[in-house]
Amino acid sequence: MLAVDTPQYLPENIFFGIIAFIMVVSALRVVTTRNVVHAALWLILVLAGVAGNFILLGNEFVAVTQVLVYIGAIVVLFLFGVMLTRAPIGADAHLDNDQRPLALVVALPLLALMGYVLWDAWKDTKITEAGPPIVASTSVLSDSIFKTYLIPFEAASVLLLAALIGAIVLARRD
Amino acid sequence: MSSLAAVLAQAAPGLTAGPAAAAPTPTITVPDIEWTALLPILVLGLGAVLLLTLTSLARGTVTRSGYAIYTVLVATGAMATAAPLWGRVHAWDHLGKWELSPPYGPFSAVAGAIGVDGFSVFITLLIGVAVILGALLADDYLRREGIDGPEYYVLLLLSATGGVIMAMANDLIVLFLGLETLSIAVYVLAAIHLKRVQSQEAGLKYFVLGGFSSAFFLYGVAMVYGATGSTNLVQIKDLLAVKVPTHNALLLIGLGLMLVGLGFKVAAVPFHSWSPDVYDGAPSPVAAFMASGVKAAGFAGLTRAFLLGFGQFASDWQPVLYFLAAASMLVGAIVGITQTNVKRALAYSSINHAGFMLMALQAASPKGVTGLLFYLATYTFMTVGSFGIATLAGRTGDGHHDLADYRGFSRTNPALAGLFVLFLLGQSGFPLTSGFVAKFGSIAAAVDAGSWHLAVIGMVSAAISAFIYLRIIVAMYMAESDTEAAEKAPKAARIKVPFGAGLALVACALATIGFGILPNGLNRVAGEAEPVLVKEPVPAAASGADGAGLTGLDLTTIPTTPTTR
Asked: Residue B169 forms beta bridges with which residues?
């Protein structure tokens, strides 16, 4: 599966191994730690690992987006949520509940399905040459934003403006 | 060079050993921007931003009704910029003294994302009308409830911007963004009465369910993209014309999910359960806009996506629309007659109307589109009129909407009661009102398309739904008022009709009677407002092009020879 065994890709392979190890350990800590805030912090490591993998694939734009959106916005939102809802933050014995079998029923088939899809798509394809990149580079992306998707790009800003005004209208008190 | 090194080289050229070649400055060729086509959107959107900016700079110095007048002017401006587009679509070279520039005929602009045809211009005008009526109704309402300010009008204009984007969308992403802009503004509008718990509840309910439905729509778009490789309706149509997609199931699932999302916005059964609660809880002028503007935009989205983009798949989606139409008409009528709250009854009646419009749409024919547009146009006036009466009758607090509150309304407020009767009879499809012609057009389109059973269901549901309206009329005219004081001194309980709301009500009444007695003009305009998908680059229709670039439904032949008006 997508093993890259030409010598020129050796650094990527080494870094991938390191990042993958960190991600798996952090992901396990997210669900085993007894402190909600720690769980959120471990999650940052997992998400940063994803960003690192995108850099290894040569797609810096998605990597930066990953950092900005997931680490910069979503985890911060989690932390704010925790701060606002659980005043004394500390180790909590009741984070876990007895739904583990049910979670397993969901998680295992999902793992199997995604694994199968990956295997089915790539089989034992190997990247041997530095051919054209699999993922589009930032310049291609920016080109399509300002060409094909110019109107969607502008319309999205109108949408965000509407959401911003709406949030202020609802939240302000006077 | 490995990809990691490539990234490093891009990020910091100094790090890599190779000489950083002096790359030529990259240029992006931005697509031609057809500003005139975008003008209605720009006027509405910039109008909203300008209102917000000006009022925050000059807080407290705005004259009475200033916001409403401004909103009416902006909406009128947007409609005025849409008028030349109508002329160009129909290949007029003049509009009055004003010379219209080519391209003539329907065209698409800005990299094929925006489609201008008779249909989109018609819906744009309709949304403009809904904004004007919504602003007129709200003017006194907001002051009465002590929540006056620019916010309502800003959100109304932004919502209309989203609606017009939807009406002009030639790309599913644009359609989605328009849908979201429209919806988010309306979620807040529903909750804008911050002093009323029901309003807050309505906003939250609408937001949560609406968020779900938008997600459904987006998921559907993703599926369609997976099956066809494009989100552009023109490209999708071209692709489907030459080959059958291999992932047919993917495409059909995508279409189904998109239908769920849009069905929610137009409140079609079984995606309707939000609408009675939200219409009841939301401020009455907002409910009026939701029933008119939002519904028009929703049907515009349905028409563009299904009739235009997936016209070839009509045999797949027609049965589904058939079911939605039948269910909406029957559930709207039958559940509607059990309601004891006037706003809830009006909500169910609007579900019933959505069924009639779906019936016209499922015909998938030029006659069906004409019927749909005629229905939308006349229904806008009738429903805004009805909710306008509810706005006034709700009195301060917007809480007097029970059927019991309308007892003896004819004696305390004879003029308002008379207008309400007109709007209600119009909605029931009484002859000589616009509702009759609209229902007739919709049923005729269904019969022409061979949907006999659906047409019969429609007629039966119209008969049942008449009971909803009769119940309100009976309460107003035949029941005694609850309070003896009101009985003895009817003038004391008279509602003072403010100028703006009065103007809106009179306009709605004139439209309801006018289009009922003389429907031909509107019918002709609706007939000329055919939806067409056109490829970019624009065909040079000015030199008598044969419409080779048209990939539309071929609803009718597009007039290509310039005619002078």
From this structure: B114
